[in-house]
């Protein structure tokens, strides 16, 4: 049996990040990965402007005057274009252009105004409250570096530079289908022994968190031609193909038969619970394959542990693993040594700031409700056995995963 870490490392070694790029509009670039440095086009600020609401004047004039005549007004978007004579100032608002003749702004709270003139109550230092072009950023400097995942602030930054498009990595295309003759689609009538296909919905949900293009190929019936056709079609369209069901040892269905024929898919047993069997490999040079076990909780756990890191690497991310935090477990834990368990838990942070967790109860890999009730995995090491309440355990929050 492989350990979780060995399996994940082997998978990550196989994955080559996608390099194909596309140019997208600013809004579409949200969450996407930049492929080149983006350089500033404009100085920021672009022109000399006022940091305060107040009055702009020439500082040397204060050698002669404390009283200034207001010659005009400079508003944001409506600059003052006139000249200033000695002893004149302009009313100015925050962000407005500072007239060429002025070099200092006094805040309005530090003057008294009578009609068309002001008297300085306090004299600011020369150059006070004036922001200079390029003070925050110079044109030509790096605005955003390559490999950056663009967030809301970045979109604003690009917009502030008048940049309307970004060159980003192409999104990975992920195709998936379910296998098993017992599976029925929503709306179909269940016969004894049938279940509704839920895996395509959990996969859809988890993939939706990853900024990828999703191709749901439905349920593939247990017929050799249908299975072969589905694999051929999926591997042409997608960078990654994911199936669920039919990879357990001893399974001699058409899915495993077809995969064995490709010659480049391995069938692994991983020391993990839920989710021991996993098929992984390539359907062709450009198409990775994950055959996840069919049980509803196993699908989710193996997707998060093995497929998600691969997809993250494919889309150029550097961090692939899930963050773990230490918590005190308030409930006893039942576990047999030999596999790494990912039990379902509910964590909270108590009044002292201490992380606490309890299990959701029954941990069968068919109990999908345990995933829905949980907000974290409780990750228990390979060798660990039962634990008493009060034990320290690792938790993996589901935030941004499901
Ligand atoms: P398998 O891995 O194909 O042996 O399936 C293990 C268990 O998971 C069986 O009880 C299946 O009925 C169930 N199962 C497989 N695929 C799905 C699915 N797409 N949705 C719900 N249950 C499934
Ligand atoms: Mg099956």
UniProtKB/TrEMBL annotation:
InterPro entries found in the cross-reference section: MoaB/Mog-like_dom_sf, MoaB/Mog_dom, MoCF_biosynth_CS, MoeA-like, MoeA_C_domain_IV, MoeA_C_domain_IV_sf, MoeA_linker/N, MoeA_linker/N_sf
GO biological process: Mo-molybdopterin cofactor biosynthetic process
Residue ranges of the region described as Disordered: 115-134
Pfam families according to UniProt: MoCF_biosynth, MoeA_C, MoeA_N
GO MF terms held by the record: metal ion binding; molybdopterin molybdotransferase activity
NCBIfam families, per the entry: Glp_gephyrin, molyb_syn
Protein name: Molybdopterin molybdenumtransferase
Organism, as annotated: Candidatus Thiothrix singaporensis
């Amino acid at each position: 049996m492989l350990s979780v870490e060995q399996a994940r490392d082997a998978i990550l070694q196989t994955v080559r990040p996608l390099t194909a790029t596309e140019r997208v509009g600013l809004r579409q670039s949200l969450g996407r990965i930049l492929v080149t440095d983006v350089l500033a086009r404009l100085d920021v600020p672009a022109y000399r402007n006022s940091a305060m609401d107040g009055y702009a004047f020439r500082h040397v004039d204060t050698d002669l005057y404390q009283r200034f005549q207001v010659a005009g007004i400079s508003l944001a978007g409506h600059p003052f274009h006139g000249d200033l004579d000695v002893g004149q100032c302009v009313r100015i608002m925050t962000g407005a252009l500072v007239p060429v003749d002025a070099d200092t702004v006094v805040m309005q709270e530090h003057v008294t105004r009578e009609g068309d003139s002001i008297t300085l109550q306090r004299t600011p230092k020369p150059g006070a409250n004036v922001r200079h072009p390029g003070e925050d950023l110079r044109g030509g400097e790096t605005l955003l570096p390559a490999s950056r995942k663009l967030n809301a602030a970045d979109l604003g930054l690009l917009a502030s530079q008048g940049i309307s498009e970004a060159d980003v990595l192409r999104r990975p295309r992920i195709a998936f289908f379910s296998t098993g003759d017992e599976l029925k689609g929503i709306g179909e009538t269940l016969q004894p022994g049938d279940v509704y296909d839920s895996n395509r919905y959990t996969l859809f949900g988890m993939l939706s968190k990853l900024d990828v293009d999703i191709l749901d190929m439905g349920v593939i019936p247990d017929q050799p031609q249908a299975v072969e056709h589905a694999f051929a079609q999926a591997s042409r369209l997608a960078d990654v193909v994911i199936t669920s069901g039919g990879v357990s040892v001893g399974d001699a269905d058409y899915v495993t038969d077809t995969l064995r024929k490709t010659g480049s898919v391995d069938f692994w047993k991983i020391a993990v619970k839920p989710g021991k069997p996993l098929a992984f490999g390539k359907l062709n040079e450009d198409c990775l394959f994950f055959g996840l076990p069919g049980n509803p909780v196993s699908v989710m756990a193996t997707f998060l542990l093995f497929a998600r890191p691969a997809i993250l690497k494919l889309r150029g991310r550097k961090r692939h693993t899930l963050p773990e935090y230490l918590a005190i477990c308030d409930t006893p834990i039942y576990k047999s040594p030999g596999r790494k368990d990912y039990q379902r838990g509910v964590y909270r942070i108590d009044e002292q700031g201490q992380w606490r967790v309890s299990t959701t109860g029954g941990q069968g890999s068919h109990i999908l409700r345990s995933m829905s009730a949980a907000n974290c995995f409780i990750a228990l090491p390979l060798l660990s056995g039962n634990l008493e309440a009060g034990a320290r355990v690792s938790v993996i929050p589901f935030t941004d995963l499901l």
